[in-house]
Amino acid sequence: MEDFPDSEPTPYDAVWRKQKLTAIAQCMERLPERQRTIVYLAYFEDCPRGDRAHSRLRENAVRQYLHQALRKMRGWLTASEVQ
Quick one: DSSP state of residue 7? Predict the structure, then answer.
């Protein structure tokens, strides 16, 4: 019989996940309000371009804000070594 990995996360996995989520939340808090809102809508409200809250922005502007926000967050997360 084959060994299958446990589908339950280990305590280590749970702690690591919580640390990552905390780091992401801290990064989001550092973003300007518009970028923070667009990231939130894109990743937590399943609105890929985040354009519901900023309907007065053009689609290209929303994509640009999202790209800039993700680039900032990636840099902050890399600097904090939480990946």
Answer: S
Asked, for residue 24, whether it belongs to a domain, the answer is no
**Cα separation of 53 and 38, whole Å?**
8
The domain total for the chain is 1
The tens digit of pLDDT for each residue in 2-30 reads 566 667 888 898 899 999 999 999 999 99
The CA distances from residue 28 to 23, 25, 60, 76, in Å, are: 9, 5, 21, 10
DSSP state at residue 9? P
- Euclidean distance between CA atoms 20 and 28, whole angstroms: 12
Across all residues in the chain, what is the average pLDDT? Answer: 83
Domain span at residue 39 reads 32-83
For residue 6, tell me if it sits in a domain.
no
